[in-house]
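Our consortium's second objective concerns turning raw sequence data into structural hypotheses that experimental partners can test. To show how far this objective has progressed, the report includes one record in full. It was chosen at random from the queue rather than selected for favorable results. The single chain below, 79 residues long, was entered without modification.
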Amino acid sequence: MSKPADYTSSYHQIGPYIGLGTQLAASVILMFFLGRWLDSTLSTTPLFIILFSFLGSAAGIYNFIKSVLNLNKKTKNEK
């Protein structure tokens, strides 16, 4: 059986990566609902849903890649 210290170091290493998927999904979902609200307010049914969904996806992917690169850079500097 592994020592508790092994689990602690493993969780410490993967901890920053756990929230990245949630951030990506949250940005897409938030922008989708913002576009839906704007479409219902302005009566422009598919326009803002599509526009803001793509915008949320692009922003989420950009943030995801930027965060992963920064975390990898930080990990390399620690070694």
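The partners drew two points from this record. The chain is about 90% helix and 0% strand. The radius of gyration is 18 Å. Both points have been shared with the crystallography group to help prioritize constructs.
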